[in-house]
Design a protein that fits this description.
By secondary structure, the protein is an alpha/beta fold. About 40% of the residues lie in helices and about 15% in strands. The strands form three sheets. Strands 10, 11, 12, 13, 14, 15, 16 and 17 form an eight-stranded mixed β-sheet that branches. It has a six-stranded parallel β-sheet with strand order 4-2-1-5-8-9. A three-stranded antiparallel β-sheet has the order 3-7-6.
Length: about 600
């Protein structure tokens, strides 16, 4: 995307005219902006003849607020390139409401005076909004003030530390304004965008989903990562729309899909079922349904690994982005690995301190005041003075303000103590926890810095110290602010520098999504007792219980999501005709960048597979 933008800027400069860009905010375009900054610094990309118009701004909103899109744009792009300040146009959220209509009309005039927008960047909200064009926005709408949809405000709640702090309105470019851009680029990443991307790309054009209007644009391009694209027909069920080159993975996907479509176990599928559901070419490759059914059934059953077929005697390093992702996503596996005599270390990559409510700190401060009367903390009066000073600082905070350093540290300590308690519930001792506190996270804000060499050095140092034979990392990319994605980047970059025998690389999910049974390498069954034990470990993270600051789009608590997903995985296998289990965790395993099959993974440190 940055390459396309750079080419446009240079092309317009050669023609002696300005390049007019429509810009978006949020986490999605940050990578594009960072690449544009790099191109400016290293390749001399000149922004002096660029004019920009931003899509939107919250209302009311002070330009200097930590939540303001004005501040976002200057911090993440404008301050780092040579664009003239007067060329940057962002809707104002600090006007009196009776002046907004005139301001919106002037914004439209400025776009026209600049010659129209050459290229418009868009993200997409869970409600299908582009800009803040919420459900009901008509095709001929222009820049205006509107009320935000409930879904949009819920998704923004994490940024504002509570939905009640999200402004009720926003100023946004209209659908017609966006569609008048000569080119439009929409960018979406992560599994949580898959459903709305599918609706926007393949659904009927309708005002209920503003992004569907892009289907009518002559030069609109949608850029997706595999996770955001996974619900598109040509990705999920390509045999319904085109001829396919059948691979083992695609055959498994198709047979599972057919089993669910027909309601039949895999081994009961007949030739007629395949022919009636656009899969005649698949069954023809195997001459009849029976051998195909058997191959897929055996492929799936080979993925199931109970404790006796899991690793024993290994040095295992588990990376957890936040101090609870380990127990949420792989609590059952962790307990089994400990029981099998593996040496397990859990490395928490970030402090997770911004996900602690102030009231949690106050609770601990009250405890410490009371404890000063029981144990020697320098005397009750001194302890109270220190605690009162901290409480005064909390009382003066506005929602979303950066915590004082001491409060950030207290919140970090709360998460660390919970993490130690969580792994102890699964049989590990507290000294098996490592708290890396990676620098990229240490902003005190929801916004994070890019992964730096220092972050990678810390991860690489731990790998070099422990020399693990197996590494676990979070492979779900849908957390609200991209921390999981960035932590995964740090691990992958560190592994790329790792010398010696490459470790087996296991990716887990669970907090936001779960691996599908066809893409998973290993499926680990859990008994009812093991599932309850996993939930108890999650409960040890009290600051995230009942009402987590960053729950994402799913209103359920993390333990509720986990129980539902683990049971759904087991229930799906049972419906396909495989053995019935109470619950299951799923993992994808690679080695040296190569996907592996379950039978290749050693169970003992001597390399036995256990098959």
């Amino acid at each position: 995307m940055a390459g396309r933008i750079a080419a446009l800027i240079r092309r317009r400069a050669r023609g002696g005219r300005a390049a007019v860009l429509g810009l978006a905010t949020g986490s999605t375009p940050l990578g594009v902006y960072r690449e544009l900054i790099r191109l400016h610094r290293e390749d001399g990309l000149d922004f002096s003849n660029v004019v920009t118009f931003n899509l939107d701004e919250y209302f009311p909103m002070r330009p200097g607020s930590i939540h303001s899109y004005h501040r976002y744009m200057w911090e993440n792009l404008f301050d780092h390139i040579n664009i003239p300040r007067e060329n940057c146009h962002i809707p104002r959220g600090d006007l009196a409401e009776d002046l907004v209509e005139v301001h919106c009309a002037d914004f439209e005039r400025r776009i026209q005076a600049a010659g129209g927008i050459d290229l418009q960047i868009l993200g997409i909200g869970r409600s299908g909004h582009i800009g803040f064009n919420e459900p009901g926005s008509v095709r001929d709408s222009r820049t205006r003030l509107l009320y935000l949809d409930t879904v949009t405000r819920a998704d923004a709640a994490a940024d504002f530390f509570g939905q009640e702090n999200v402004p009720p309105q926003a100023i946004t470019m209209g659908v017609a304004t966006i569609l008048e851009a000569r080119e439009v680029i929409l960018l979406a990443t992560g599994e949580h965008k898959a459903e709305i991307v599918h609706r926007s790309v393949e659904g009927q054009v309708h005002a209920d989903v503003a992004a569907t209007f892009l289907q009518q644009h002559p030069a609109a391009t949608v850029y997706l990562d595999p996770a955001a694209a996974e619900d598109l027909t040509r990705i999920r069920t390509p045999w319904l729309v085109q001829e396919v080159d059948w691979t083992a993975r695609l055959e498994t996907d198709a047979v599972i899909w057919l089993s669910r479509q027909t309601g039949k176990p895999i081994l009961h599928l007949a030739n007629e079922d395949y022919r009636a559901h656009h899969l005649a070419s698949l069954v023809a490759r195997h001459r009849s349904a029976e051998p195909l059914n058997g191959d897929v059934f055996n492929t799936l059953i080979a993925k199931i690994r109970g404790k006796s077929r899991l690793p024993r005697g290994h040095e295992i390093l588990v990376f957890s982005p936040h101090p609870d992702d380990d127990v949420i996503s792989m609590g059952g596996m962790l307990a089994k690995l400990v029981e099998n005599g593996n040496r397990v270390t859990v490395a928490y990559q970030t402090s997770g301190n911004i996900a602690v409510f102030d009231h949690e700190v106050r609770r601990y401060l009250d405890f410490m005041k009371r404890a000063a009367h029981v144990i020697d903390l320098g005397g009750p009066e001194q302890a109270e003075r220190v605690m009162d000073a901290i409480e005064d600082g909390l009382a003066r905070k506005e929602p979303g303000d950066i915590d004082p350093a001491v409060v950030q540290d207290l919140k970090r300590v709360i998460r660390e103590s919970e993490a130690s308690a969580g792994i102890e519930a699964l049989g590990l001792t507290g000294d098996r926890a490592r708290f890396l506190d990676l620098p990229f996270y240490q902003t005190g804000e929801v916004r994070k810095n890019p992964i730096s060499r220092r972050d990678v050095d810390i991860v690489h140092g731990l790998l070099d110290e422990l020399r693990p034979t197996m590494v676990f990392a979070a492979g779900d990319l849908s957390d609200p602010h991209g921390t999981h994605r960035m932590c995964l980047e740090a691990v992958q970059r560190a592994l790329a520098r790792y010398t010696g025998e490459p470790p087996w690389y296991w990716l887990y999910r669970g907090a936001w999504q779960e691996w599908g049974i066809s893409e998973a390498t290993v499926l680990v069954p859990l008994s009812e007792h093991e599932l309850r034990r996993k939930v108890q470990a999650i409960f040890r993270h009290e600051s995230q219980k009942d009402s987590a600051p960053f729950p994402g789009a799913d209103p359920r608590e993390f333990w509720q999501r986990v129980v539902a997903r683990n049971r759904e995985t087991a229930d799906l296998l049972q419906s396909l005709g495989l053995p019935a289990y109470r619950a299951m965790e799923a993992y994808v395993v690679t080695r040296d960048g190569r996907p592996v099959e379950a039978k290749e993974i050693p169970t003992s440190s001597l390399g036995e597979t256990g098959d």
